[in-house]
Design goal:
The structure is a single chain. This protein is α+β, with helices and mostly antiparallel strands and about 325 residues long. It folds into three domains: about 5-70, lambda repressor-like DNA-binding domains (434 Repressor (Amino-terminal Domain)), CATH 1.10.260.40; about 100-120, no CATH class; about 130-329, Homing endonucleases (Endonuclease I-creI, Roll), CATH 3.10.28.10. Helices cover about 50% and strands about 15% of the residues. The strands form three sheets. It has a four-stranded antiparallel β-sheet with strand order 3-4-6-5. It has a three-stranded antiparallel β-sheet with strand order 7-8-9, sandwiched between helices. The radius of gyration is 22 Å and the shape is globular. The two termini are about 40 Å apart.
Length: about 325
């Protein structure tokens, strides 16, 4: 992946101009191009050189030209950084294990879990098997938006700066469905809340209802067919997806010295089947969504954004949502 290097302050000014033009904060801008809000904030601080593809996409969406820059080819830093990193790792840890030693360690770990009931309950739990419902459809939307499955657990990743209340809501939703309370903890290195619940049987159940293990983008996963069977399920699943991978914003502009503001909704995801579900689902519910860029679905009309909040709703009441509901825009 090629990266771009800008003159001092060039990248920060460019991103602020893009945010002003699109009416989005760092998190909203990040979702628009499939990145994290922390990445955008790091770019604004000029901590890292940004990827060429992402910056060109921001320029195209906002119609703001790029400031002076130069292109850094892929792996431009590896020659120096790789050697320094290798020497540092060897100095700290010595020679790392090989395939055989890692396999032996895994077998010992598995044996300890089998022999220790307390450890074993982390991997196999008894839980309530929920029926298909709007709550389950909403949880599937949340997982498809910002979650994932491994063989032993389901983890949902939320922004620790803006999603604290929503993390508690997700925790309560999971407990209501499965009669088992997930844990919530904050990542030490990232601005992330992790809502996590473990259990082989639970993962197998979610898998049987249509959720896949592995990378959602590489697998191009879609929404399970049972979600399409009822309008209430469609609404709930869209709400879960938008509450995680969507963004409400208030766009402000001036014409002849007079300021105007209107709300808009942007949903971004890199799985085409999920994008199509949100697009077709909204159309089926009487909305007029737009697909104005590759990885997104939009509601531009302010009446439709308010209709969405009235008929589908949100459980993630970020400041922009409160502003819209308060009639500021």
């Amino acid at each position: 992946m090629d990266r771009l290097a800008f003159n001092h302050d060039g990248l920060r000014v460019f991103i602020k101009q893009v945010q002003g033009k699109l009416g989005l904060d760092s998190d909203g801008l990040a979702k628009l191009i499939g990145l994290s809000g922390r990445t955008i904030r790091d770019w604004k601080r000029e901590k890292f050189n940004p990827s060429k593809d992402a910056i060109l996409k921001l320029s195209k969406l906002s119609q703001i030209p790029l400031p002076p820059h130069k292109i850094l080819p892929q792996f431009w830093h590896n020659g120096i950084a790789g050697k320094l990193g290798g020497k540092k790792t060897f100095k700290l840890y010595g020679l790392l294990g090989n395939k055989e030693s890692r396999s032996k360690g895994g077998k010992i770990s598995w044996f300890k879990r089998r022999e220790n009931p307390e450890l074993w309950t982390k991997y196999v739990k008894t839980f309530k098997i929920p029926e298909e419902s709007e709550d389950l459809a909403e949880l599937f939307g949340i997982i498809l938006g910002d979650g994932g499955l491994t063989r032993y657990q389901c983890v949902i990743y939320l922004n620790s700066d803006t999603d604290q209340d929503f993390a508690v809501y997700v925790q309560n939703l999971i407990e209501k469905l499965f009669d088992s309370k997930p844990s919530i903890y904050k990542s030490r290195n990232d601005h992330v809340w992790k809502v996590s619940i473990g259990g082989v049987d639970l993962v197998e159940y979610l898998n049987s209802k249509g959720l896949s293990l592995g990378n959602k983008v590489l697998l191009q996963v879609g929404v399970p067919e049972w979600v399409w069977t009822k309008e209430g399920y469609i609404k709930a699943c869209i709400r879960g997806l938008v509450d995680t991978d969507g963004c409400f914003s208030v766009h402000t502009y001036s014409v002849n010295g007079k300021r105007y503001s209107y709300p808009k909704l942007a949903f971004s995801n890199r799985s085409e089947p999920i994008l199509q579900f949100v697009y077709q689902g909204l159309k089926q519910l009487g909305f007029n969504p737009k697909r104005t860029y590759e990885y997104g679905v939009w509601l531009h009309n302010q009446q439709e954004v308010r209709k969405y909040l009235q008929e589908i709703g949100t459980r993630n009441y970020k400041p922009s949502v409160k502003k819209i509901l308060g009639g500021v825009a």
